[in-house]
């Protein structure tokens, strides 16, 4: 067994194949935090005197994100933002993990419970035409509510746990499907569509998914141990599998792909101008339609509840 490349100890636990590195537990945790710090600085995601909101789900990626940001920038003020979607058992489980994590780190936690705030849950969409598209509805709702939570928490920047695998598979998907405008939205730092909204940043864009899990395991972070019962990511998984195949040939493949896409995006932005953005007549959020996708979906459930005299 090789020795740790950083400290020379013989208790190597991780082999980082793309960097040809063997690391012990302590040095892996340091290596991970350093990369997060470098990524934030590389893309100028925020300054150390900023207030940064971190979307935390209870899963490995966002737990690793919150913990590593806390370690990389000890002076930075972080606020953990959690959305409870009211999925039976699963949502309570996730919220309890988030509570434990933020307690350990002594970070303020703000939770948005859609049952209390909106009188509905993600489960209600199973009675609508979106019943086979719960994941996509969930995505639309999450994006909208996190904007609202960022506003409430008065943070200038909202950090999310999108990792290297997520980002490269979505990039490949949009690329192969010719969704050029969507491709340009997958940037490490996304400026707000209108004034008063938060910058979205992805500090884990260079962190592979399996390393986020290892960071949580070696750092003994509380993370969810059950999966979402509604999860249906078959489409994206197809691209993730393709990337795995290429990575077997070249462990650096995802990193290379990310770098090439990052060079391509500014050219795409020039070629495909942004669609005109107006405001949603119901919620006043930026939207390309008169009523935004979020309000359309919420009113669908509300309509069902009214017709059936359901009060929540
Ligand atoms: Zn070491
Ligand atoms: Zn709206």
Question: What does the model show?
Answer:
By secondary structure, the chain is of the alpha/beta class. It has one domain (29-278): Rossmann fold (3-Layer(aba) Sandwich), CATH 3.40.50.620. It has eleven helices and ten strands. It has helices at residues 25-42, 60-72, 90-105, 114-118, 134-153, 164-176, 180-184, 209-218, 234-249, 253-271, 293-307, and strands spanning 12-16, 21-24, 51-55, 77-84, 108-113, 157-159, 189-190, 199-201, 278-279, 286-287. The strands form three sheets. Strands 5-4-3-6-8-7 form a six-stranded mixed beta sheet, with helices on both faces. Strands 1-2 form a two-stranded antiparallel ribbon. β4, α3 and β5 (108-113) form a beta-alpha-beta unit. The radius of gyration is 20 Å and the shape is globular. The mean pLDDT is 92. The structure holds zinc ion (2 copies). The site of one zinc ion has 8 residues, from β2 and α1.
